Amino acid sequence: MDRTSCSRFxxxxxxxxxxxxxxxxxxxxxxxxxxxxxxxxxxxxxxERLIKLAVWVxxxxxxxxxxxxxxxxxxxxxxxxxRAVGATS
Length: 89
Hints:
This protein is mainly alpha-helical. The chain has one domain. It has helices at residues 9-32, 43-51, 75-84; strands at residues 56-59, 64-67. It has a two-stranded antiparallel ribbon. The radius of gyration is 16 Å and the shape is globular.
């Protein structure tokens, strides 16, 4: 929130708004992860295990399918959280 190093006000305001949106996203992820192995996880852990993934995305008209690697160790908790935020299987 303190990175307001741009010389223009609107650029700094956009940075603050993007930081706020990311904060709200991770607060919601922490709330939805209550009954999983990541119930007490910090934001760094959630980011590394939920967001920073190498997946193959298959898109059609009605849905997007994520194909995880065969050796992905957190597939089950990831699916639990995805369903908690509204994904369908």
